[in-house]
Predict the 3D structure of the following.
Amino acid sequence: MPTTESADDDQLFVLTAVLLTPAQFPSVLGDDYPEVCAGLGLEPYAEGYGLVLGQDGAGARWTVATEDVSLVACAIAAWDCGMEYDLSPGESSIVAALPGWPLALAVSAPDVPAPHDPEPRDGDPAPLVPPDAGEWGPAQRRLGADDIAMQWVAWREQVDDEVTFVDAGEQPHQGVRRVLEEARGYVADPPPPGRVRSSFAAGEARTLRVDGPGWSMVARTDDIAFVLLDEEPREVHPVGRGPELPGLLTSLDKLAARPV
């Protein structure tokens, strides 16, 4: 679990941290890296940031953006292994201390008041708040795509020979047709960083995450794809490989942002 600093109003009790880079960022916050940065008031530098979420000694919520991406990555890796790690970014690496949290947290720091937004001061931005993921919309759609990417095997097992695939070549579904056309457009005219991301999968395959206005696609380069649409709440459309999908996925993987 994250370690915390000593109790002092000027210290930060670290609760969690996330990476904000073109290849890795909280999908719930936007379809691409520049969009997420804009929502946080940060410049979309190629090197990215680490976001440290915590509370001060008075219990107020704060999000600290640091340029020390490697430090935050090491902390996250240690926590994932169940190890303690004292995440304390150096002051020279901190580019912003933003009131509020952009993500919903179910934890809080011990021995301090309950989480709350800090008292506003002149010139401070409005406190960050998590996107409303309760109703279907872009945030919920992106969270659904996250779940498919993380639970690929479970989702893939639900698709068998009895399921009618949307064929990437014929495209009888208008919404899926639009998604595939826009994805092909990315190959000819690369989109903003983070719209196409590639991560490890089983064997030599890659997991692709592709997002666009109103849609998300999750695919394995050696398998099928799943499409989610803003206009069709909670519907997931499997896209069969057919003659078109393999080449499209290979081309998208070549331009995708990849974790270092």
